Amino acid sequence: DFVMTQSPDSLAVSLGERATINCKSSQSVLSRSNNKNYLTWYQQKPGQPPKLLIYWASTRESGVPDRFSGSGSGTDFTLTISSLQAEDVAVYYCQQYYTTPRTFGQGTKLEIK
Amino acid sequence: EVQLVQSGGGLVQPGGSLRLSCAASGFTVSTNYMSWVRQAPGKGLEWVSIIYNSGGTYYADSVKGRFTISRDNSKNTLYLQMNSLRVEDTAVYYCAREGASGSYVNWGQGTLVTVSS
Predict the structure, then answer these.
(1) Are B47 and A107 in contact (CB < 8 Å)?
(2) Segment B18-69, tens digit of pLDDT
(3) What is the DSSP string of chain B?
(4) A38–B102: do the CB atoms touch at under 8 Å?
(5) What gap in Å lies between CA B17 and CA B31, rounded to an integer?
(6) Residue to substitute from A100, A106, A108, interface B, most B β-carbons within 10 A
């Protein structure tokens, strides 16, 4: 199984500052056939289901603010929030969909400093 | 509008059974990849099972042989039959639809399953 490891486990950032969350896969999620990374990011707020933010590692889902961006390829990926807003307080998860079983990172809790 | 409405959670004793339902609207369950994902209290997301549009299924090792994913095309509904439940199966269970990208674009509201004596 692909193991997804996020860092850090928790993060406190001041409003308006940049937040960076990392995700490392135990195996490459880059498909040679279409040159796409099968890596996605979700945001989860308390009492709610996860919400899709980013897919194909760097494509923003419709309606997601452009302060959210994804980067990386192969085994190493990053979710960046360019200017933290109060409503961004949540837990963020990466997930690979390169293969089954799908696997999630353990989550990163983002708070306001 | 795409909606996934879940039902069927509750309290069950260890060794018992429960069936979760996920009624879909706005799309056809049988032409999509549909999954169950769970979240133990205060913990992260854990993938549980998938049913492909072909009807093929796959399970996490933790539930293999105990859980069965299925769908009723006439009701446009996804199910998760859970047998031989264990305390460690206690979680909020979500159904989810994979979009064209392969990411989970739609999620149910979640249903709590508590396994306790």
Answers:
(1) no
(2) 999 999 999 999 999 999 999 999 999 999 999 999 999 999 999 999 999 9
(3) --EEEEE--EEE-TT--EEEEEEEESS-GGGS-EEEEEE-TT--EEEEEEE-TTS-EEE-TTTTTTEEEEEETTTTEEEEEE-S--GGG-EEEEEEEE-TTSSEEEE---EEEEE--
(4) yes
(5) 28
(6) A100
Phi, psi of B32 (to 5 degrees): -125, 160
Q: Write out pLDDT tens, residues B70-96.
A: 999 999 999 999 999 999 999 999 999
pLDDT score recorded for residue A24: 98
pLDDT at residue A59, as a whole number:
98
- Identify the closest residue of chain A to B36 by CA–CA distance: A102
> Residue B101: what pLDDT?
87
The vertex-A25 CA angle with A12 and A84, nearest 5°, equals 25
Q: What residues of chain B lie within 8 A of the CB of A104, using their CB?
A: 44-47
DSSP bridge partners of A44: A91
Q: Is A72 in CB contact (< 8 Å) with chain B?
A: no
Query: What is the C-alpha to C-alpha distance for residues B49 and B95, in angstroms, rounded to an integer?
Result: 10
**For B55, phi and psi rounded to 5 degrees?**
100, -10
Mean pLDDT over A58-65 rounds to 97
Cβ–Cβ < 8 Å for B8, B113: no
Option in B47, B96, B101 nearest A103 (CB): B47
Task: Determine how many CB atoms are found less than 10 A away from the CB of residue B19.
Answer: 13
DSSP state, residue B31: G
